[in-house]
Fold this sequence. Notes:
Chain A has about 120 residues and is mainly α.
Amino acid sequence: MSITSDLIRGHTETIILALLQQEDSYGYRINKAIRSATDGEYELKEATLYTAFRRLEEAGYIRSYWGNEESGARRRYYAITDAGHDAYRQSLAEWHRANLLINRLVTGIYPREAQEGGESI
Amino acid sequence: MSITSDLIRGHTETIILALLQQEDSYGYRINKAIRSATDGEYELKEATLYTAFRRLEEAGYIRSYWGNEESGARRRYYAITDAGHDAYRQSLAEWHRANLLINRLVTGIYPREAQEGGESI
DNA sequence: ACGATATACCTCGCCTGTCAAGGTATATCA
DNA sequence: TGATATACCTTGACAGGCGAGGTATATCGT
């Protein structure tokens, strides 16, 4: 894994919601999906994942239920709620705004006044 | 301010380096530049800023010197080092990669196998 | 003369999200 | 029988951000 966690920090919940938006899923599978979607460049650690689940459930953005597997280990499935949908849309919008700002800031492309003395306010 | 800190977390140092790449500057001014560049949507808190300075200096990415103001409060100027330039370039590249991954993950656009069962590895 | 505001620096201690390390249990395959 | 994959979970530490507080100088209005 090569992407530092600080760059992803804050996106964990959005990523989970994005996946659950498509269909109910469970921890192990979500984790694998993320890993393979990023070609192994990023993975959520299990501890991170499960604390995120708890946060999301407490916030009312997801709910969980046990799957009825007849074989293999039990699975706890998660489903996104209506509030979760709203939260997801909002997070996505926030990310788009933040993306613009971050790009501007890290590339050092600043409005002229900010560099010339900043008398704008 | 509306952008949550977790979305910016990890970019603080890159943002500072980006500014110092253009010219030496000092804390207060850097802070103002960021605020005005984002139209007030984001600002580094002073505590964050100064701890970042210390980290960057300890890492050898910046060095500092006192300005010789004849009036007004003293200013501690920061200059980027060669190692700082390298670190900046690397951070920027990392950010571009992370940006792609984050976009993919938060929009839920996943390769097919990841959704179908993930037998790719 | 005095207070408010802007400039400019700094520190302490808390909060929050991440994660290493550890644990449990079931099924498959060599 | 042991290794590996699946599948879940918790504890404690760590690091970065930040609220709250502090210091000092200069300017401007009253």
